[in-house]
Design brief:
The structure holds 2 protein chains of 2 kinds. Chain A has one domain: Orthogonal Bundle (ABC transporter involved in vitamin B12 uptake, BtuC). The model of chain A has no long low-confidence stretch (mean pLDDT about 90). Chain A is about 75% helix and about 5% strand. The longest helix of chain A is centred in the first third of the chain and has 32 residues. Chain A is mainly alpha-helical. In chain B, about 45% of the residues lie in helices and about 20% in strands. By secondary structure, chain B is an alpha/beta fold. In chain B, β1, α2 and β2 form a beta-alpha-beta unit. The N terminus of chain B is likely disordered. The chains are: A mainly alpha, B alpha/beta. Chains A and B meet through α1, α5, α8, α9 and α11 of A and α2, β7, α7, α8 and α9 of B.
Chain lengths: ~300, ~400
């Protein structure tokens, strides 16, 4: 086993983790704030991928991918907002119903994509400037993967700045800490909910764009990421963005490093075992979210 | 809201009741067998990860049925196709197969793609003594009187591809596949042959069905430096594999990939640029030159658009219907056992992949081809097997001493 291969796998671990982060961030946001499990989250990723396909067809050339990310953020964010206002906000007091309702939405979105774009999927090609490799320290690194890592870091940074220094961010933190008190102080809790749900969906849209660079774009592409996304959110400590980031890194690195010894199928089994064992000893996840609310 | 929920429930109950009623009212007139139609089932994945491939086989099977109906049907009766969605899930395939046979009372079923789906359906067809026409290449090592295996056996696709690679002088092989029975068995056979020929196996990797993370596999391929990759990946995973190989700077001109599940349809869906220059082994390419094929392509395009392409499993699905028709007419009955007996003793009939017939072991005698993908997603035929190859489900190296005899 040569060192180069092991270093390569560490890089792959970070690369996979950055994909998990983009896939799971929106889920962590909406769960953290609203305790709503959004089963349609994978389909919002899918919508992002299809928006990438449409945008890159309209805006070819090197900057198409950035246009796609902006468009996907807007479209997915809007979709998330509409979903929240029309459906989720009406069901927040009944968690099981939101689970079913958002699952229904996921089926509707899948079928819609199938009817509009066909069951066979579409092809999104990376722009030429992403389509090569660079050599760093004896490692051949795909530019696409470096780009995705950069996007993940930028999105995390942007989100942290947004939550820390904007007025909406302040309100989000207030609602997150103690919903009834925030409401009593005059915070429009519903609007904060809608904003964060839309934001989380927008981030998922960006995730969908970058996933399209590495994987297929089909009506059921969301299904292949949703389970891992949930896994990351649960392992991270439901609702903590920092915990989710650490969890994504843990699972990504675990997957990549275990592949030094076993194949992907077994690595996936081992990573699930790892999560189960971890939660046995630390059921609250990587970072426990403390709340002042009495109901917890 | 509550009102809405009640209405919803009521609606659901009404729907459920009406489908049950429909099921009841349908059953008697078909079991009597006195109707004007012969019912057959078409069972493919119209949703899920395998839809990318299977929808087109459903289309070509349906087209054959329409053509036969247009020409007067079978023994003067029209064929009535009941289409079901296997949803890329073996359990659903088994369930839908039972539904087709037991409640729709179909005479036979055309369908299946993955070996997992076939293995799941096999007990149903054996229990109900019905006949499944299976249109896709597979790993062999199975021999049932209730399945007509028209797709290639390993010695008609995988081993010819291996022979071709040996002729090209490739010595270091890397095997990558989806994690289920076809890739595992196909690779077992390949490994036995690589070992027997004293060539080098540089690695073997499996990806869960529908898996999209190939970072580790790509790294292992880079470290192993193979001459050629044999890929038994199935479905959407192929898109991720080729994208990530290309992103890592290993396109087909650097390390050639030989695939066994990528045809013209998959090339279109993945974007032909992605797989340009890679190889595929099949018993049919759209570029096969014969009058039956020209007719088939023209008919398919007339129905599904000028951009539609034709593939090996589609042609197998198509010819299966004609084989079934010929067998029914020879047997003078739609009884599955009589149809099978007639099918394996039929004279060869002209089809888009040549003039072919079934061997006594329920498999098709056919030619093997190796093609290379061009920028349009068509395959240029580089190599043709010496004549038609007799099907053998049990490779003598991998499964010594086993033979397939169906009485």
């Amino acid at each position: 086993m040569d060192l180069g291969f092991i270093i390569g796998q560490v890089f792959n671990g970070f690369s996979v983790a950055s994909i998990y982060i983009l896939a799971a961030l929106g889920l962590a946001l909406s769960f953290g704030l609203m305790r709503v499990i959004n089963m349609a989250h994978g389909e919002i990723l899918m919508v992002g991928s299809y928006v990438a396909y449409l945008t890159i067809a309209l805006v070819p050339g090197p900057l198409g991918i950035f246009a796609a990310m902006i468009a996907a953020f807007a479209v997915a964010g809007l979709l998330g907002g509409v979903l929240e206002v029309t459906l989720v906000s009406r069901l927040t007091s009944r968690p099981l119903d939101t689970l079913l309702a958002t699952w229904g939405v996921s089926l509707i979105l899948q079928q819609a994509a199938r009817d509009i774009f066909g069951a066979t999927g579409v092809s999104v090609t990376a722009p030429a400037w992403l389509d090569h490799t660079i050599l760093i320290g004896g490692q051949t690194l795909p530019v696409t993967r470096l780009f995705i890592m950069a996007v993940a870091v930028a999105v995390l940074g942007g989100l942290a700045a947004f939550l820390r220094s904007t007025r909406i961010g302040l309100l989000v933190r207030a609602v997150n800490q103690d919903r009834p008190t925030a409401a009593a102080m005059g915070v429009d809790v519903r609007r904060v909910d809608a904003a964060i749900f839309a934001l989380g969906s927008g981030v998922a849209g960006i995730g969908g764009v970058v996933l399209a660079l590495l994987g297929p774009v089909t009506p059921n592409v969301g299904q292949s990421y949703i389970v891992t996304a949930f896994l990351v959110v649960v392992l991270g400590g439901l609702g903590s963005t920092l915990g989710m980031t650490i969890a994504a890194l843990m699972i990504g690195l675990f997957m990549a490093l275990s592949q030094i010894f076993v194949d992907v199928s077994l690595a996936q089994v081992l990573s699930l075992l790892f999560v189960i064992l971890f939660l046995q000893f630390r059921p609250q996840g990587v970072i426990a979210v403390r709340s002042r609310a009495l109901d917890e | 809201m509550d009102r809405g929920f009640k209405t919803g429930r009521l609606l659901a109950a009404v729907l459920a009741a009406s489908t049950m009623l429909a099921g009841c009212s349908k059953a008697p007139d078909t079991s009597a067998g006195g109707g004007d139609d012969i019912k057959v089932g078409i069972l493919h994945s119209l949703s899920g990860t395998m839809a990318i491939s299977e929808v087109t086989v459903k289309n070509s099977t349906q087209m054959a049925i329409d053509e036969i109906n247009g020409g007067g049907g079978v023994m003067g009766k029209k064929i009535d196709a009941v289409v079901e969605d296997g949803a890329s899930d073996p359990a659903i395939f088994a369930q839908k197969a039972a539904k087709l046979i037991e409640s729709d009372k179909v005479a036979t079923v055309f369908g299946g793609w993955t070996s997992s789906s076939r293995k799941a359906m096999l007990p149903v067809f054996e229990k109900d003594a019905n006949l499944l026409w299976y249109p896709v290449q597979f790993e062999g090592n199975e021999c049932s009187p209730n399945i007509m295996y028209s797709g290639a056996q390993p010695n008609q696709q995988i081993l010819p591809a291996y022979d071709w690679a040996k002729e090209k002088g490739y010595k270091r092989f890397f095997l990558v596949g989806s994690d289920y029975v076809f890739p595992r068995t196909a690779n077992l056979i390949l490994k036995k042959h690589i070992e027997a020929d004293k060539l080098t196996m540089t690695g073997e990797e499996y990806q869960p069905m529908g898996g999209t993370d190939f970072s580790g596999v790509v790294a292992k391929i880079r470290a192993a430096k193979p001459d050629v990759i044999f890929s038994t990946l199935n479905g959407d995973s192929n898109v991720a594999f080729f994208k990530q190989m290309a992103a890592a700077g290993m396109k087909s001109d650097v390390i050639p990939v030989m695939s066994f599940s990528i045809g013209e349809q998959e090339a279109q869906a993945m974007g032909p640029a992605l797989i340009e220059g890679s190889y595929a082994g099949w018993n049919y390419f759209q570029t096969v030159d014969n009058p039956e094929n020209a007719k088939f392509i023209a008919a398919y395009k007339a129905k599904f658009g000028a951009d539609a392409v034709t593939t090996d499993p589609m042609v197998h699905g198509y010819l299966d219907v004609y084989m079934w028709k010929a067998a029914v007419e020879k047997a003078g009955s739609t009884d599955p056992a009589k149809v099978r007996a007639a099918a394996v003793t039929l004279n060869a009939i002209p089809t888009p992949l040549g003039t072919v017939k079934f061997a006594a072991n329920n498999s098709l005698v056919q030619t093997g081809y190796i093609g290379q993908a061009d920028p349009k997603g068509q395959f240029k035929i580089l190599w043709t097997s010496k004549g038609m190859i007799d099907p053998n489900p049990y490779d003598p190296l991998a499964f010594p001493g086993k033979t397939c005899t169906i009485s």
